[in-house]
Amino acid sequence: MGKAIDKLKELRNQLVTGQQKIDQATEMGKASLLKTLKANGIKADEVLEFDLNGAGIFMMGGKKYVCQVEDDGVSYGEIKA
Question: Per its UniProt entry, which superkingdom is the organism in (predicted)?
Answer without folding.
Answer: Bacteria
